[in-house]
């Protein structure tokens, strides 16, 4: 049974703050990569492409964690909590809005064998 957790965290910077937000998010990557259960952790920014013209926030974090417990432990790290407090919750922060969601690749009602 897959226990992986896929997190997509998208960010809407305040006007003129996109570069600052991207750099602040990039600064989180090295320590997240040190976490044993971090399988993938990369911040990306939207680019123009004629084959993908959907709407979304301009900065997106793509994360894959070995399991739910690891993801939740990551979210409780001081560095992660400080990022959200400084950049999103503080009225003077650089982020206007954020949308963080988690997903599983396991189908509903999956009858995974017990090992």
Automatic annotation (TrEMBL):
<dbReference type="GO" id="GO:0004497">
    <property type="term" value="F:monooxygenase activity"/>
</dbReference>
<keyword id="KW-0503">Monooxygenase</keyword>
<feature type="domain" description="ABM">
    <location>
        <begin position="5"/>
        <end position="103"/>
    </location>
</feature>
<dbReference type="InterPro" id="IPR007138">
    <property type="entry name" value="ABM_dom"/>
</dbReference>
<protein>
    <submittedName>
        <fullName>Antibiotic biosynthesis monooxygenase</fullName>
    </submittedName>
</protein>
<dbReference type="InterPro" id="IPR011008">
    <property type="entry name" value="Dimeric_a/b-barrel"/>
</dbReference>
<dbReference type="Pfam" id="PF03992">
    <property type="entry name" value="ABM"/>
</dbReference>
<keyword id="KW-0560">Oxidoreductase</keyword>
